[in-house]
Amino acid sequence: MRFSSKLLPALLLFSCGAALASGQTIPVGTFQHIIIVVQENRTPDNLFGAGAPSGACNSASAFEPGVDIQSGGYAFVYTSSGTLQREFICNTALPLSAWDKNVSTPQIIDPDHSFIGVGEDYDKRKMDGFCHEYNNSSFVGVCPPYSFVQKSDMQPYFDIATSYGFANYMFQTNQGASFSAHQFLFTGTSAPVEPHDPNGYYLDFASENSGFNDSGCPYTGPAWPEWVAPNGTLMADPRKSECYTHDSLVTDAADCATGHCDRGLVSWAYYNSMALSTVIWDAPSAIPEVCYGAISGSGPCGGTEWSSHIRLPGKGYSEAPIFDDLFNCKLPQVSWVIPDGVWSDHPQDPTQGPATVYGPSWVGDIIDAVGGGITGSTCNPPSTTNALYWTQQPTLILVVWDDWGGWFDHVSPPKVYRSPNKTSCPTTVQPNGWGCGYTYGFRVPLLVISPYTKAGYVSGSCQLHCPNLQFPYIHDFGSLLAFTEYNFGMPYIDAANNGYADYNAPDNQQGNVPLSDFFSISNPRGFTNITTAEPFSFFQTYHAKTGTKPEPPDTD
C-alpha cells in the first residue's frame, strides 16, 4: 500500500471521529455495511418534478420544504414558422418509460447524453441547450427533455426522499455517459492513473461508451475512439483498449505483486442483475485487477478475484443476487448494486416490450429487505425494530443515478474545469491538477437511507432562495467513495497523487466528512417501510416467469 505525507491528515481524521456540519461527531465504523445502488439517466428536475405545487412553472417546485426543483426553464424551441426561438417553457409530464404521445410522431424520448451533449446542454452556463436534438418539425413548440415523471410511476421515490434524506446538490463527477460514470462510481476516475504512465495518459479521461454487448477488458472491437484531453477536446484512445489499469475503492494494482489485487481492507461485492458480465454498467470488467486478478490479461473475465466479488444471476444466485446475500447473512461491507435494464429507470420503448415502471419498486424492495426484514429470510426475519442490517449491523444505503440522461435540469454545475492546453491541468486552473476537461457534470438525484439519517432531511436546503450552492452541501460521486473510506478507516484510493474523485470530492474539505450532514448519530431512528407495487420475489424470477432475457442498456 502506498502512503505519503498528503495522507497523514486523513489518517489522523480517521483515528478519532470528525466534526459534522452540525458540530456532532461521526465515529469511524458507524456503519457496518454500505450499499451503493446505481440507477440510470435522470436529473432531480426530471425525476422529482411531479411534486411541484400549482403555480408558475418558473418558480421553485418543492415536493417538500427546501427542495430545489424547478418545473421549467429556457430552451431553444422550433416554432411553427420554422425558426428557432429561445423562450421559457414549462416541463410536461411523461411516464417513467419516457414514451411521449404528445408529439406528432409518438416515440421514446432518450435524449443525447454524450460528452458533446453536455456542452450543448450547458451552453456556457446558460443551461438552455437541452433541446439541441429536438429542434425540428416533429416537436413544434415543445421540447421532450423538459419534462417530469408522472407521480403515479414513482411514489416509492417520493416516500424514500421524504422519510429519509434527499440531496439538492449531488453532481455527476464526469461529463459523459454510462461507461465513464460507472467507472467514477466504482474507481473514482475513468483515466489510467495507476501505475503512473510516463506518457501522461492519466490526464485523459475515457468519455464515451463502446458496444454494450462487448465492453471492458474482453472488448475485441475497433479502437475506442473517444477520450477527453485536459482542454476538453476529444482525442483518439491512446491505449486502443478498454482494459487499462487504475485503482478502485477496493483494488490496488500494487498488491497484484503479492498474488492478489484486492486492497483487502474491506469485504466487497458488485451485484449485477444482468447475466451479461461485459456491459457498460459493469465497471469491474474494465479493470484488469478484477477481471483477471492481474494488471494485464486477455479474453473473458475470470479467476478468483472475479468470482469472489462479482455476483451475477445463476450459479446459486437468483435474477436479483443482492436479495440472496441479504437473506443469507452474506452482505459484505461494501456493495454496488446494478439493475437489470427494465428496472433501471432508463427510458423504455413500449413497442419493444412492456412499458416498465419497476425501478421505484426495485429500490424500495432493497431498502425494505435491509431495514424491515422480509418473510422468507433465514437471517433477517421481519422486524422493524430489530432487523439485523438496521439495528444490529447498521447499514447505509446510497441510491444514486449514474448520469443526467440528457434531461433538463436548471442548476449549473459548480465548476467546469478546462485547461488552456491538452497536455496538462495547471494549478492555475485546478489547484491540484486533477479533473481538467471532464469535471463536473450535471445534477443527479441522491437518496440517503440509514438508521442515522434525519427524517425528511434535505442536504443544501434552500429556504430563502435556490440554488443554494454552499459548502459542505455540494456532493459528487467522490463523496460516496470518500465517506466509505472514512467509515471503514481506509486511505484515499491514490494516496500519492490524489488523482481520484474521492480526495477531490467538493464536500471533502476543511476537516468535513463527506455526506456527514445527513446523519444524527446520537439519535438512531426506527425503520420506515417503503410501500412498493412489486415484491422482491418479482425481481428474483422476472425473466424466468416472462420468458425474457436480462436486458442490458442500449449504447448510452
Map the helices and strands.
Elements: H1 8-16, E1 18-19, E2 25-26, E3 33-39, H2 44-48, E4 72-78, E5 84-90, E6 92-94, E7 99-100, E8 107-108, H3 115-122, E9 147-149, H4 155-163, E10 165-167, E11 170-171, H5 178-187, E12 205-206, E13 227-228, E14 234-235, E15 268-272, H6 288-291, H7 304-309, E16 310-311, H8 321-327, E17 334-338, H9 359-371, H10 388-392, E18 395-401, E19 446-449, E20 457-459, E21 475-476, H11 477-487, H12 536-540, H13 542-546
Parallel strand pairs: 3-17, 3-18, 6-9, 10-20, 11-21, 15-16, 15-17
Antiparallel strand pairs: 1-2, 4-5, 7-8, 10-19, 12-13, 13-14, 18-19
Structural summary, described in words:
It is a single chain. This protein is of the alpha/beta class. It folds into two domains: 9-45 and 155-546, Alkaline Phosphatase, subunit A (3-Layer(aba) Sandwich), CATH 3.40.720.10; 71-149, no CATH class. It contains 13 helices and 21 strands. The chain has helices spanning 8-16, 44-48, 115-122, 155-163, 178-187, 288-291, 304-309, 321-327, 359-371, 388-392, 477-487, 536-540, 542-546, and strands spanning 18-19, 25-26, 33-39, 72-78, 84-90, 92-94, 99-100, 107-108, 147-149, 165-167, 170-171, 205-206, 227-228, 234-235, 268-272, 310-311, 334-338, 395-401, 446-449, 457-459, 475-476. The strands form seven sheets. Strands 16-15-17-3-18-19-10-20 form an eight-stranded mixed sheet. The chain has a three-stranded antiparallel sheet with strand order 12-13-14, with no helix packed on it. It has a two-stranded antiparallel ribbon with strand order 1-2. Strand 7 (99-100) and strand 8 form a beta hairpin. The longest helix is centred in the middle third of the chain and has 13 residues, at 359-371. The radius of gyration is 22 Å and the shape is globular. The protein starts with 7 loop residues before the first helix and ends in a 10-residue tail after the last helix.
